[in-house]
Write a structure and sequence with these properties.
The complex is a heterotrimer of chains A (218), B (365) and C (347).
Chain A lengths: L3 H15 L23 E2 L10 H5 L5 E7 L5 E9 L8 H5 L6 E2 L14 E3 L3 H42 L4 H8 L3 H10 L8 H17 L1
Antiparallel strand pairs in A: 1-4, 2-3, 3-5
Helix pairs in contact in A: 4-5, 4-6
Chain B lengths: L6 E5 L11 E7 L2 E8 L7 H6 L3 H9 L6 H16 L5 H29 L3 H22 L8 E2 L2 E2 L5 H26 L2 H7 L7 H6 L5 H4 L7 H4 L20 H25 L18 E9 L2 E9 L5 E7 L1 H5 L2 H6 L4 H11 L3 H5 L1
Antiparallel strand pairs in B: 1-2, 2-3, 4-5, 6-7, 7-8
Helix pairs in contact in B: 2-3, 3-4, 4-5, 4-11, 4-14, 5-6, 6-11
Chain C lengths: L4 H17 L2 H38 L16 H11 L10 H17 L18 H9 L3 H10 L3 H32 L4 H6 L7 H4 L1 H14 L11 H4 L9 H26 L11 H20 L7 H29 L4
Helix pairs in contact in C: 1-2, 2-3, 2-12, 3-12, 4-6, 4-12, 6-7, 7-10, 7-14, 10-12, 10-14, 12-13
Classes of the chains: A mainly alpha (218), B alpha+beta (365), C mainly alpha (347).
């Protein structure tokens, strides 16, 4: 009895002394992260984001500090997406609630900081904000142009209607279809800026990519 | 004139072996302990109060932080309480996944309990082996829910993600490891004369004392009372599963250690059965986005890793609970510390802490 | 006397210095100084190598890699980094400490730990102080190590330190007795207290570990207890009393404790080598001091192996074990040795 248990214990340790090691050199080798790994900072694409702020509402700990701007077309866009990692519970509720699935974890879990104040992360970079500003001004111009075109079209339609009324053959629906095609407006837009023709997110993205490319080339 | 004096020794809150921030005031006569007085509250975050201002869904991540070693069991307990309150039926597949996760987490937690016991007795190698094997469980958790510590996986109405094939593969590989590492601990620790002498007959407790102090979980079962809510209530699908409740005899540290070791083997058995019986199907019930349970109250208890984990929730019919009270097993078990330490030596006090196995997040809540 | 590599080198050096200066005293003095410097070098080198070794052994047994940052893949410069860290640390004197005793304790602990090295025969003839009562003197000096621990524990004005100090006194005194009694059998067989004689008595492969296996076990256990290492590391008992007498020490003062601990570890290993494993004796293809080194390092490894396998005993168990098991067994060993020697007509 006495001594046998000690010797078997020593056998176990010496076996592991020569055996394979379970750990690895961490910063050089990293564990593969699971697909749904929750950790690191939040990332999002402002071009996809619809600014609904559901994520901030789902957050149990008020870790998200969002600033939303509304463009000329009454669409909301994210300006500052501040993720306070110090408050975050990493519960995934914000990611799950996102209706357009643009909110994601960047999985970079090694995000320690020297002090508490640095434990914030803005998912919107300065570059993003610059792009957003350009986009917003574009939208504004577009909206103005649209408004002008609309006014013009309306005026034209009015004039036509008046003329038709003068002729005595009212064909209002036809006139409207004639007036509605945004041909002049589109031309004007194209002249001003080839990008940002459409409000659809995919096209926007493309345009932004093109812009970025231009910037890079310049 | 010869004269001896008792003195007061503060163990903790900053001490290598007090499991987080537990402070124990030991009144000592030389090396012998006359009185052990735990001082709590260093990790108090007011979780019960915080929950009152969160919706039921938002409460769940907070339960992760109660007993941060066994988050799955806490999720499970809270989700069950809310489901009972709101009358939500959980899909069968989700129930099986929940049981698998809860049992995996029980193994995880017992591994830490045994590892820290070994470490507190000076065998740090034993602890490292336990942590090595725990990693395999964390890999499974990482696979199913994307987190290694605060899982937030078991949700109200089901579970957050499906039990994928990869997770099943990992679980089966882990189940194969269980007997291997248990026998290794037997070789390294259980059979070790120094280890057995350190824990046999130390901090013994009778069944009556344990019941008087309202202790639950492995600490109670070590005294010979086979009280396990999994068997007693048969909640979730536990009623359909075949498993034993290991009990001890003398209620000493050795029995507590043995009960934990045997419970790990039993948990592995439960997981195996669940893997075999798990049906296909939904993993999440239809839960309204704005969950408003009817007015009323509920006390729902589950067998957590450290004993009876109860959630008492009062609903006032809004989206937020009116009051949540959590019966934290670690907190209640802490009552036994004084009894377990009295008359023992300083060296035994640390093994008493480790065998109660308190998690300070749960004690202070 | 047989001339080995080391003693030959010493003789040659002495001759050269004598030829240069013409003063025999000067050559003796120079040689002594060189010897002392070498021993101190051995001790500090041992501490450096053993800290690295201990961390690697510990890591390997715990299925870890161990130090791997400083100095290449194997972390070879880790001890240097540790040393630099210790030297650059702030020296904190606790409030209410007995400053004189507090400062003296680490220094006093190091002195006996280093002093005993003078008696070790590293090779045939290579011993700094060749005294005929070597064993006696050695244990007389190493027995002094109890006091500095108690001083440090008392002077720190800390309850953990005080408890540690009390523990060290009871433990080290209890194990001094079986340690000496376990060696008594060997002294009876060799009939000499000169360490080199004891080594020479083991020539021909008849090491005392084979003649006195019980004594070896008792010696090993007692030596581990004397050096305060697991399973008898109650003095430092990390999970109980934090670091015992060292709790309040930091920086270089703590490093001195550390140095003494490793010096004691090597002392235990060297004693086991000398008394039981045939010292510097070994096949001729390697010089004697290499054999000596190999055996000593092997013993150090065994003691480290104990440390990373076993839990810690408790204070009452360690004393019970010492007085009720180790001491009677060692006396029994002495008795048996005497009976066998009588029977063989060696007396």
């Amino acid at each position: 009895m006495f001594g046998k248990g000690l010797l078997t214990g020593m056998g176990v340790t010496i076996k592991h002394f020569f055996g394979k090691k379970e750990t690895f050199c961490y910063p050089e080798e990293k564990l593969p992260m699971a697909e749904g790994f929750r950790g690191g900072d939040l990332t999002m694409d402002w071009r996809v984001c619809i600014g609904c702020q559901m994520c901030a509402m789902a957050c149990p700990n008020k870790a998200l500090d969002l600033t939303v701007v509304t463009d000329a077309k009454k669409k909301r866009h994210m300006k500052y997406y501040i993720h306070k990692t110090g408050r975050c519970l990493f519960c995934n509720l914000c990611v799950e609630v996102c209706p357009v699935h643009t909110l994601q974890w960047d999985k970079n879990y090694a995000n320690s900081t020297w002090n508490k104040e640095d434990m914030v992360h803005d998912a919107m970079t300065d570059k993003d904000r610059a792009d957003l500003d350009i986009f917003l001004s574009d939208v504004e111009k577009k909206a103005k142009a649209e408004a002008e075109a609309k006014a013009k079209a309306e005026a034209e339609a009015k004039a036509k209607a008046e003329a038709e009324a003068a002729e005595g053959k009212p064909e209002t629906p036809k006139a409207e279809t004639k007036a509605a095609p945004p041909k002049p407006e589109a031309k004007a837009e194209a002249a001003k800026k080839p990008a940002a023709q459409n409000a659809a997110p995919d096209a926007e993205k493309k345009a932004a990519a093109a812009e970025k490319k231009k910037g890079g080339e310049a | 004139m010869k004269r001896t004096e008792t003195y007061l020794l503060n163990m903790g809150p900053q001490h290598p072996s007090t499991h987080g921030v537990l402070q124990v005031k030991l009144t000592l006569d030389g090396e012998r302990i006359l009185k052990a007085e735990p001082v709590l509250g260093y990790l108090h975050r007011g979780i019960e109060k915080l929950m009152e201002s969160r919706t039921y869904f938002q409460c769940l991540p907070y339960t992760d932080r109660l007993d941060y070693i066994s988050s799955m069991n806490n999720n499970f307990g809270f989700a069950m309480a809310v489901e009972e309150l709101a009358g939500i039926e959980v899909p069968r597949r989700a129930e099986f996944i929940r049981v698998i996760m809860a049992e995996l987490n029980r193994i995880n937690s017992h591994l830490i309990g045994i590892g820290t016991l070994a470490n507190d007795l000076g065998a740090s190698t034993g602890m490292l082996y336990c942590f090595r094997d725990r990693e395999y469980i964390l890999d499974i958790f990482n696979e199913v829910c994307g987190a290694r510590q605060t899982f937030h996986y078991i949700r109200i109405g089901g579970v957050a993600g499906d039990f994928t094939d990869k997770a099943r593969e990992l679980t089966e590989a882990f189940l194969e490891r269980v007997p291997k590492f248990l026998s290794e601990y037997d070789q390294l620790l259980t059979g070790n004369e120094i280890f057995t002498r350190r824990i046999i007959g130390i901090s013994a407790m009778t069944a009556k004392e344990a019941l008087d102090l309202n202790m639950t979980g492995p600490n109670l079962r070590a005294t010979g009372v086979a009280r396990d809510l999994r068997k007693l209530d048969g909640y979730s699908v536990y009623g359909e599963l075949d498993f034993d409740i290991p009990v001890g005899e003398h209620g000493d540290n050795w029995d507590r250690y043995q009960v934990k070791m045997k419970e790990m083997a039993e948990s592995a058995k439960i997981i195996r059965q669940c893997l075999d019986k798990m049906p296909e199907g939904l993993i999440m019930a239809k839960v309204p986005k704005m969950l408003k349970p009817p007015k009323g109250e509920v006390y729902s208890r589950t067998e957590g890793t450290r004993g009876e984990l109860g959630f008492y929730i009062v609903s006032d019919g809004t989206t937020k609970p009116y009051r949540v009270h959590i019966r934290r097993p670690s907190f209640v078990n802490m009552q036994g510390l004084d009894l377990m330490c009295r008359g023992m030596l300083i060296g035994d006090s640390v093994s008493a802490y480790s065998s109660i196995d308190p998690i300070m997040g749960e004690v202070d809540c | 006397m047989e001339i080995s590599f080391l003693s030959g080198l010493a003789l040659w050096l002495r001759g050269e210095i004598y030829a240069l200066t013409g003063l025999p005293i000067l050559s003796d003095l120079a040689l002594d100084i060189i010897g002392i410097a070498l021993l101190l070098g051995i001790i500090s080198m041992a501490a450096i190598v053993f800290t690295y070794g201990e961390r690697k052994v510990c890591a390997f047994m715990q299925v870890r890699i161990g130090p791997n940052r400083v100095g290449g893949r194997f972390g070879l410069l880790q001890p240097v980094a540790d040393m630099l860290k210790l030297m650059s640390k702030e020296d904190i004197v606790p409030e209410g400490a007995d400053k004189v005793l507090w400062a003296l304790s680490p220094a006093l602990l190091f002195v006996p730990a280093a002093l005993v090295y003078a008696f070790f025969p590293f090779d045939a003839g290579a011993v700094l102080a060749d005294v005929n009562v070597g064993v006696f003197l050695l244990f007389a000096i190493s027995g002094q190590a109890v006091l500095p621990f108690l001083m440090g524990g008392y002077a720190s004005n800390n309850k953990y330190s005080m408890v540690g100090g009390f523990r060290v006194v009871s433990q080290m005194i209890s194990y001094e007795a079986p340690l000496l009694f376990s060696l008594l059998g060997i002294l009876m067989i060799t009939g000499s207290m000169r360490l080199e004689d004891i080594v020479e008595a083991q020539s021909g492969g008849l090491w005392f570990i084979f003649l006195q296996p019980l004594a070896f076990v008792i010696f090993l256990i007692s030596a581990v207890a004397e050096t305060n290492r697991t399973p008898f590391d109650l003095v430092e008992g990390e999970s109980e009393i934090i670091a015992g007498p060292f709790t309040e020490y930091s920086g270089m003062r703590w490093a001195l404790f550390f140095l003494a601990e490793y010096a004691n570890l090597l002392t235990a290993a060297i004693l086991a080598t000398t008394f039981f494993l045939g010292g510097y004796l070994g096949p001729d293809f390697l010089p004697g001091f290499v054999w000596f080194g190999i055996k000593a390092v092997l013993m150090v490894f065994v003691i480290m192996w104990f440390r990373w396998t076993f839990p810690r005993t408790r204070v009452d168990q360690i004393l019970t074990f010492g007085w009720k098991a180790m001491l009677p067994l060692s006396i029994l060993n002495v008795f048996l040795t005497g009976v066998v020697m009588c029977a063989l007509g060696l007396v």
